[in-house]
Amino acid sequence: MSYFCFMEVILIPAKPKEVKKQKLRVAAYCRVSSADPEQIASLESQVYYYERKIKSNKNWLYRGVYYDVGSGLRKEQRKGLARMLKQAEKGKIDLILTKSISRLARNTVDVLEATRMLKSKGVNMVFENENLKLSDQKTEFVLTVISAVAQEESRNISENIKWGYQRKFERGEIQTKYKNFMGYTEMDGKLVIVPEEAEIVKKIFELYADGFSIRKICSYLEDNGIRTKTGKTKWAPNVIGKMLHNEKYKGCTLMQKTYGENFLTGKRKKNNGEVRQYYYEDTHPAIVSKELYEKVQLQLN
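User: That's the sequence. What structure does it adopt?
Assistant: Structure tokens below.
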């Protein structure tokens, strides 16, 4: 005979794990379009505002305020943005605050590339002026429209600037912002001869006219301890070549030797007749005579 003993079973539930709420790692991005004092003051105010806003939120961890000074058109001018996106891509940022879509970029493609990368990494972004969050479904469409409008506005500004320069050229207003220009310095917007450098320029033209090759001229200058405008002991053949072609050494000026190929990239291209050029005689003191200059051009060609 078997006997069964029924015992009362008391169920003791497992203790739920405490889920510790993770703090959001938050950064901000600011940009101003120029280094004007008013713009820099605005940038400082934005940086201060975002730093206080992030640090005062007990649920947020401060991950920095990134910023840039310059046009929002060109990637190379947005180093602060590039650093922030790199940190986000590495998984070190959860949320980014910024004033508006145009602060991020004025280039539609760049805006969409950046925001899509952030979404793929689970990073949210808040555009305060537009009251938009990257996590919202409608946001990409709105981003596309707003950034396209900003890009078109930038294109119009670029075209207006070009138009303004062309009118100045037509009126004979010469642009004289030159750096490292052997033989000259700039004073009050005018080219002024530097005597000791002018002698070097004359010698280069005379040597070439006498049959010296460009490489032989480089050797001559180096052997005689003559330094470049920037103080280098070595002379590059392309530097000599550009000097020999430069009409400014005979006192004349050719404007628009290059032109902006693309307003988005800012890249300039040599003008081989694609856009109008403006040539002016006797715009400043000459270092070499027109006769010597033309003789050199014949030999170069």
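The mean pLDDT is 82.
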